[in-house]
């Protein structure tokens, strides 16, 4: 039985916990750990996995140029949760990552659509600071390329004026993110006026300049 068409406005009913970073920073590991903790805590949550990793294992290298297809599949994985009334999802492949991999000679209207789709959801954005050794298995980038993408992702979050949390991508990350989710669920907000004293840093990119974080040695 098919479900009735769900309006795009219903996307705001789904809180998407976006785990940002370049390849090999621990996005999948942290996402899985967070999903596990949220399930135990009785959250209505699902895990949205990374379609590009499927393509790597299938050796469908040509598909990486076709970012419209990757966006469509990744977006579908979130939209179907909206259709079934799921309240939370954790993803290691945020829609905005299309910005990192879309060629300059690709369709010019794709990225504005990506931005619109991303902002249609209720987002909690997490940037993982790289702490683990790079593992090339299942990747389409080298370690050096992934480090460059780390910085480009941070730049993108500032350009987009997104609110995000910077967290070390270690074994403590899932529990820290769950604390954020719990806090926000109860109507709280987090802003750390002296992020140099806290390994978990809240950044409102509409209020804080990137250079401020660089000066503090955070990025």
Question: Could you characterize what this model shows?
Answer:
The protein has helices at residues 27-40, 51-57, 67-83, 98-101, 110-119, 143-159, 173-185, 210-215; strands at residues 15-20, 45-48, 88-91, 122-129, 163-168, 201-204. With 219 residues, the protein is of the alpha/beta class. The chain has a single domain (8-215), classed as Rossmann fold (3-Layer(aba) Sandwich), CATH 3.40.50. A six-stranded mixed β-sheet has the order 2-3-1-4-5-6, with helices on both faces. It is globular.
Structure in a nutshell:
Helix content is 40%, strand content 15%.
Task: List the topology elements.
Elements: E1 15-20, H1 27-40, E2 45-48, H2 51-57, H3 67-83, E3 88-91, H4 98-101, H5 110-119, E4 122-129, H6 143-159, E5 163-168, H7 173-185, E6 201-204, H8 210-215
Parallel strand pairs: 1-3, 1-4, 2-3, 4-5
Antiparallel strand pairs: 5-6
Helix pairs in contact: 1-7
CATH class: Alpha Beta
> What portion of the residues fall into strands of 2 or more residues?
5-15%
Total beta strands = 6
The amount of helix comes to 40-55%
Separation, N- and C-terminal Cα atoms: 49 Å
Order of helices and strands: EHEHHEHHEHEHEH
Kindly report the CATH topology: Rossmann fold
Based on secondary structure, the structural category is alpha/beta
What is the averaged pLDDT score? 85
Tally of separate domains: 1
Strand count, sense and barrel status of the largest sheet are: 6 strands, mixed
> What is the fourth-level CATH superfamily?
P-loop containing nucleotide triphosphate hydrolases
Sequence stretches where pLDDT stays below 50 over 5 or more residues? 193-197
Task: Indicate the overall shape.
Answer: globular
Radius of gyration: 17 Å
What is the strand arrangement across the widest sheet? Answer: 2-3-1-4-5-6
What is the CATH architecture term? 3-Layer(aba) Sandwich
């Amino acid at each position: 039985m098919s479900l009735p068409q769900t309006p795009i406005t219903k996307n705001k009913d789904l809180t998407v916990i976006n785990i940002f970073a370049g390849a090999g920073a621990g996005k999948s590991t942290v996402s899985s750990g967070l999903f596990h903790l949220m399930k135990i805590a009785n959250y209505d949550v699902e895990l949205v996995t990374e379609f590009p990793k499927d393509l790597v294992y299938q050796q469908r290298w040509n598909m990486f140029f076709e970012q419209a297809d990757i966006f469509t599949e990744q977006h579908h994985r979130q939209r179907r949760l909206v259709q079934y009334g799921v309240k939370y999802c954790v993803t290691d492949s945020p829609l905005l990552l299309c910005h990192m991999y879309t060629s300059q000679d690709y369709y010019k209207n794709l990225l504005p659509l990506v931005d619109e789709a991303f902002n249609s959801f209720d987002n909690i954005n997490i940037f993982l600071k790289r702490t683990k050794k790079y593992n090339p298995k299942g990747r389409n980038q080298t370690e050096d390329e992934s480090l460059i993408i780390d910085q480009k992702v941070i730049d993108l979050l500032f350009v987009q004026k997104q609110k995000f949390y910077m967290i070390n991508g270690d074994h403590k990350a899932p529990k820290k993110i769950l604390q954020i989710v719990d806090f926000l669920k109860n109507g709280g907000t987090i802003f750390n006026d002296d992020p140099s004293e806290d390994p978990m840093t809240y950044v409102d990119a509409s209020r804080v300049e990137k250079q401020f974080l660089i000066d503090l040695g955070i990025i």
